[in-house]
TrEMBL record:
Native source species: Ureibacillus thermophilus
Protein name per the record: MBL fold metallo-hydrolase
Transmembrane domains' residue ranges: none
Molecular functions per Gene Ontology: hydrolase activity; metal ion binding
Origin: domain of life: Bacteria
Keyword Metal-binding: yes
Cofactor: Zn(2+)
Keywords: Hydrolase, Metal-binding, Zinc
Length: 212
C-alpha cells in the first residue's frame, strides 16, 4: 500500500503530494513552492525521490521544481502542450501577479505526449489527459491503490477555473465526466487545492456538475 503525504505550499495554498512505497522510494507531484519545506519533509521521512510529475504548469504548481530536481537529480515529467510554460512567466502565470516570484525554470526532462502507464520504483499509475483548466492538464490514476492526483481539474464542491490561457469550460466538464467521474464511487480524488473528495460525493453535491 502506498503512502500519500500532502504538503500545502505557497501563497495560494497548493497541494504538493509525495507518494511513497514501503521501501521509502517516492514520487513528488506538483512541488509548487516552499522548496525547503518539501526537502525537509523528504529528509525527515528518509525518503528516496525518483521523479517529479506535474499535473500542469501554472506557477502555483511548479515553483519548487528546480530546487527539488537539483537536490535529488531526478527527472521532471510534463504534458507536451505545456512544454514551454516552465520557462515562460506569461504562460505559467507568474508574470501576472505583483509580489509573486517570476518563474523561468529549466525545461522538463521528459515530455508526456500520450496517455500511458508508468511504473516508478514499483509504483504503478496511469497518466490520463484531463484538459480544460489548462490545455496540458494531466490526472494520475493509481488504480491498484484507489486514488488519483488530479491537479486543478476537480475540487471538493467545485471545478478548476477556465479563464486562464488555454482554458475551456466545455472541455473541462467533458474531462471531469468522461475521465474522473467514471472512476469507482469511493476512489480518492486528491485535488490541487483543498481537501480530498470522491466521485460519489461530487456527483451528489457539486453544483458545477449538475445538469451537464
Amino acid at each position: 500500500m502506498l503512502d500519500v503525504k500532502i504538503l500545502t505550499v505557497g501563497p495560494v495554498q497548493a497541494n504538493c503530494y509525495i507518494v511513497s512505497n514501503k521501501e521509502k522510494d517516492c514520487i513528488i507531484f506538483d512541488p509548487g513552492e516552499e522548496g525547503e519545506k518539501i526537502l525537509s519533509t523528504i529528509q525527515k521521512e528518509q525518503l528516496k525521490p525518483k521523479a517529479i510529475f506535474l499535473t500542469h504548469a501554472h506557477f502555483d504548481h511548479i515553483g519548487a521544481v528546480d530546487i527539488v530536481r537539483e537536490a535529488f537529480h531526478i527527472p521532471v515529467y510534463l504534458h507536451k502542450e505545456e512544454e514551454d510554460w516552465l520557462f515562460d512567466p506569461n504562460k505559467n502565470g507568474s508574470g501576472k501577479y505583483v509580489g509573486l516570484p517570476t518563474y523561468r525554470l529549466k525545461p522538463a526532462d521528459e515530455i508526456i505526449n500520450k496517455e500511458q502507464s508508468f511504473e516508478v520504483a514499483g509504483m504503478k499509475f496511469r497518466a490520463i489527459f484531463t484538459p480544460g483548466h489548462s490545455p496540458g492538464s494531466i490526472s494520475y490514476i493509481f488504480e491498484e491503490d484507489g486514488f488519483a492526483i488530479v491537479g486543478d481539474t476537480l475540487f471538493q464542491g467545485s471545478i478548476g477555473r477556465t479563464d486562464l490561457l488555454g482554458g475551456s469550460l466545455e472541455v473541462l466538464l467533458k474531462s471531469i465526466h468522461e475521465k474522473l467521474l467514471v472512476l469507482p464511487d469511493d476512489f480518492i480524488i486528491y485535488p490541487g487545492h483543498g481537501p480530498y473528495t470522491t466521485p460519489a460525493h461530487e456527483m451528489d453535491s457539486n453544483p458545477f456538475l449538475h445538469g451537464f
